[in-house]
């Protein structure tokens, strides 16, 4: 009996499965949505059929099938073994996935649900998380077509203790795409012409699919003419013929061009547009420094702001021309190497200063409106939007310029004579006073430096006296009132007195006469000495002057 009990006990230890392990069982029946499985030693358990189905598929199990199950408990309250197919698959899956993670190999799975931030993936018994950013190389708007489809994934991270697995579908796509890209790039050569499909359009160009690899067609390589936005000439899905301009073997970037397949219009620019020739063009772009004018498709020239108008110097180009406007321009300079054409707009019109010089010779009289008043003169508006300037010194014969300019206001109409036209410097000089008589010239007719003139005292001041000669006033300073210091007193004169004075200076520009009684007395004394005595005669000054006075009588 002891031997029998030992054998029986040994039999129990061998045949009875251990709880918490995966065991093999046989499907003996399927009823009420459950599979009844015999796990040995007369132990049976039940498992819902749904545990035998993959996500999105029907259960695939039949009576007689041998399956692996996870034994939770040898016997539950109903006397049956508590088993689970799902836990068995999970344990099996984790073992398999850990090996795949360690060897960085791909695993198959199916997306079966959507969660916050991504999706859930069944990896054959283990559930993994697929972040939204790892679904595809580009953001996916609709993941419907991917749901339930068996496909490869790359395990990025896994933690068995916490039951966390993170996978990526994007890594698989990028790897296969890189292989495909390398193969396509290997078959391409710079200068080759290929067909491609426009995949995406941006502000700076378009991405063209060359059969598994994208190339960038920059907006400047689409046409010889200016293209404001790629959508002007391309649309998504369109098939285009392009030339491979450059291939970067390291980054696998491909630069494409369309205009390279067309003839370069710049090859014939110098012949088609000789210097100083006039052509019609269309304004394509306006900037602060000028306007771009298209002469033909692919050939644009710049009209600099300084070449836009003869008269509008500090005006924005947008106030002179507008986009799409047709204008006549003159070719000023061509630099084929830099692909630049300098154009002129004002050169197609006559220089208004030349026109003015022809129609208004020096001496002619004009009438215009005072446009501006400055500290140095008046600006008068003339025909063709040009101005002439009346300098302070040309305002009046009788008043100083600073005083005369006070008589004018903006908007006044004035008449003036043309005194000079400088076409090169674009200046027109005018004179208002030239239309009147020069009273100063008339007053001093015949008077020159050294002349003795008779004046009338008009005012007595502390610093001297004011005198009048032929209607023109002058001032004799105190120091010039007499030769002797004691007689240099203004109060010894009275208004209305007639006095003789010597002209010391004639300033026609300032319209002033310099007068001096002292200079007259010194000159008379010198003359008397020369005529009636000498330094050797011994005669006194009184004797000489007395003789001179007698001689004068």
Number of helices: 9
Distance between the termini: 194 Å
Q: Whole-number average pLDDT?
A: 82
Strand content: 35-45%
Oligomer: single chain
Shape: elongated
How many extended strands? 30
- Spatial strand order of the main sheet: 3-2-1-4-5
Question: Helical proportion?
Answer: 10-25%
Estimated radius of gyration: 56 Å
Pfam family, one: S1
Family: Belongs to the bacterial ribosomal protein bS1 family.
Protein name: 30S ribosomal protein S1
InterPro entries: NA-bd_OB-fold, Ribos_protein_bS1-like, Ribosomal_bS1, Ribosomal_protein_S1-like, S1_domain
Structural overview:
With 553 residues, the chain is of the alpha+beta class. It has a five-stranded antiparallel sheet with strand order 3-2-1-4-5. Strands 8-7-6-9-10 form a five-stranded antiparallel sheet. Strand 7 and strand 8 form a beta hairpin. The longest helix has 19 residues. The mean pLDDT is 82. Belongs to the bacterial ribosomal protein bS1 family.
Q: Any descriptors?
A:
9 helices; alpha+beta; 5-stranded antiparallel β-sheet; 30 strands; 39% strand; elongated; 18% helix; 553 residues
């Amino acid at each position: 009996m002891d031997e029998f009990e030992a054998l029986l006990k040994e039999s129990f230890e061998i045949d009875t499965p251990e709880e918490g392990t995966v065991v093999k069982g046989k499907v003996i029946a399927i009823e009420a949505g459950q599979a009844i499985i015999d796990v040995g030693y007369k132990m049976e358990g039940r498992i819902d059929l749904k545990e035998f189905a993959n996500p999105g598929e029907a259960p695939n199990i039949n009576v007689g099938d041998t399956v692996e199950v996870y034994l939770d408990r040898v016997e539950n309250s109903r006397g049956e073994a508590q088993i689970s197919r799902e836990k068995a698959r999970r344990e099996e899956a984790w073992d398999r996935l850990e090996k795949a993670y360690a060897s960085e190999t791909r695993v198959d799975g199916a997306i079966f649900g959507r969660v916050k931030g991504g999706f859930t993936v069944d990896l054959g018994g283990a559930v993994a998380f697929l972040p939204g950013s790892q679904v595809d190389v580009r953001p996916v708007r609709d993941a419907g077509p991917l749901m339930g489809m068996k496909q490869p994934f790359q395990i990025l991270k896994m933690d068995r203790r916490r039951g966390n697995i993170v996978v990526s579908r994007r890594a698989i796509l990028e790897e296969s795409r890189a292989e495909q890209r390398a193969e396509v790039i290997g078959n391409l050569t710079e200068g080759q012409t290929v067909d491609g499909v426009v995949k995406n359009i941006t502000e700076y160009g378009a991405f063209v699919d060359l059969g598994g690899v994208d190339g960038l067609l920059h907006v400047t390589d689409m046409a010889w003419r200016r293209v404001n936005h790629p959508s002007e000439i391309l649309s998504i899905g369109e098939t285009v013929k392009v030339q491979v301009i450059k291939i970067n073997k390291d980054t696998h970037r491909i630069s494409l061009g369309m205009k390279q397949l067309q003839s370069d219009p710049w090859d014939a620019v110098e012949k088609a547009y000789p210097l100083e020739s006039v052509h019609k063009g269309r304004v394509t772009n306006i900037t602060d420094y000028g306007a771009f004018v298209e002469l033909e498709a692919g050939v644009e020239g710049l009209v600099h702001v300084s070449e836009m108008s003869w008269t509008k110097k500090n005006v924005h180009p947008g106030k002179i021309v507008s986009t799409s406007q047709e204008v006549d321009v003159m070719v000023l300079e061509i630099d084929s190497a830099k692909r630049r054409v300098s154009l002129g707009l004002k050169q197609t019109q006559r220089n208004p200063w030349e026109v003015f010089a022809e129609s208004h010779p020096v001496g002619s009289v004009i009438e215009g409106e005072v446009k501006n008043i400055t500290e140095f003169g008046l600006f008068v508006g003339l025909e063709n939007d040009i101005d002439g300037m009346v300098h302070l010194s040309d305002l009046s014969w009788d008043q100083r310029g600073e005083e005369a300019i006070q008589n004018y206001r903006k908007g006044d109409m004035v008449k003036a004579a043309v005194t000079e036209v400088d076409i090169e410097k674009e200046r027109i000089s005018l004179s208002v006073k030239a239309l009147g008589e020069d009273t100063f010239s008339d007053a001093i007719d015949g008077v020159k430096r050294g002349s003795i003139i008779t004046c009338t005292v008009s005012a007595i001041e502390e610093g001297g006296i004011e005198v009048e000669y032929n209607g023109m006033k002058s001032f004799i300073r105190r120091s010039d009132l007499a030769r002797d210091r004691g007689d240099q007193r203004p109060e010894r004169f009275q208004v209305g007195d007639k006095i003789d004075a010597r002209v010391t200076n004639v300033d026609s520009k300032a319209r002033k006469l310099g007068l001096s009684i002292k200079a007259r007395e010194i000159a008379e004394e010198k003359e008397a000495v020369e005529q009636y005595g000498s330094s050797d005669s011994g005669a006194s000054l009184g004797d000489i002057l007395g003789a001179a006075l007698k001689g004068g009588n």
